[in-house]
Amino acid sequence: MARHGELGRAPILPWQETQWRWFLRVLDAGRLAHALLLSGPEGTGKQTFARLAAARLLCRAPAPNGACGDCKSCLLVEAGAHPDLVLASPEEAGKAISVDTVRATTAFAGKKAMLGGWRVIVINSVDALTINATNALLKTLEEPGEDTAIFLLHHDRGRLLATIRSRCQQLAMPMPSTTQAVDWLHTHLAAVGKSLEHDELERLLALAGGRPQRALRLLESEQLAQLGKIEQALTAIARGELSPLAGADLAKNLPLYDIVERLQYRLTGVIKSRAARRESLHPAYFLYFDQLLAAKQNLLSQGNPNPQLFTEALLLGWRQLQQQVQAGN
After folding, report:
1. Do 167 and 278 reside in the same domain of the chain?
2. How many domains does the chain have?
């Protein structure tokens, strides 16, 4: 569990404006539920939305469109020192949130606000909770403290238990269009004295699966060049020009979770493209999608697979998918 800041006076993300207006309406009308479930792909700004919403709830002199940014509460949020704001998230991408983390967070929910007003909890990757952590969270969702707002962020709707969904107000968070994402990346980079050509931004965005905030993290990491090589390797494996074993060697320094997500993005793109052209979809597409979901579940359930064998199995499945589709055509 950690206190949370890094909010500042940043505006709402352009592709979340409709959702932000909805939030303000239900808040002003007194219809905001104690728990709000924000669902959508990772890396598209759900945390940004939750931070802005938390700042609005805690603000002492809110403006029409959000927090004022100047009051004591806003300054504490900005500094990451607000005593009535807490964040819980996995310690590492692709890992589960432990029951101890959730218990510490829910204990906070049972206390009185130190500055009066709301207490706000943001739980990131709620679909990555262990079973025990889920049970601990359900108790808080059933009996939240007075003036407590809980924002639950999740990326994979298929993995979220119905018992959690049924106790929350739900808000679907959209993916940005390519134009929105590229424009936002250009503006963000310009603000910190950096720039990339339009085609470079589009390529970066594609490697990030269309998710702009994921694109920024890639740009700041050492994984960008390797992801580009993996993208080329997937094409070569699909054509039979590279073996899955050689592809696994190229991917050995990438987090396993990122490899699964890269394959999911490629597969989803192929399915959408064929569907848009009204082409038939071979059953192998969906069988492989199930294999990727099972692989992600293995990682999120704190499985500890052999990285080389894990990656080889995924890439072998990718090659077999191409062979089955070609044979079916």
Report:
1. no
2. 3
Q: What is the reported pTM?
A: 0.76
Stretch (H or E) spanning 42: none
Render pLDDT for 42-89 as a digit per residue (tens, 0 to 9): 888 999 999 999 999 999 999 989 999 899 999 999 888 999 999 888
Distance CA 288, CA 263 (A): 10
User: 109 and 89: one domain?
Assistant: yes
Half-sphere exposure of 9 (CA within 13 A, CB side): 7
Both 43 and 140 in one domain: the answer is: yes
In single-letter form, the type of residue at position 292 comes to L
Cβ atoms 77, 55 nearer than 8 A: yes
Strand 2-3, strand 85-88: pairing: antiparallel
At residue 34, what is the residue type? H
| Residue 222 scores a pLDDT above 70 | no
Nearest to 12 by CA among 64, 59, 50, 57: 50
CB distance 84 to 59 below 8 Å: no
Residue pointed to by tokens 């052209």:
277
DSSP 247-314: HHHHTTTS-HHHHHHHHHHHHHHHHHHHHHTT----HHHHHHHHHHHHHHHHHHTT----HHHHHHHH
- Residues 184 and 316: their CA atoms lie apart, in Å, by 37
Angstrom CA distances, 248 to 93, 222, 320, stand at 20, 18, 15
Cβ-based neighbour number of residue 238 at 10 Å: 18
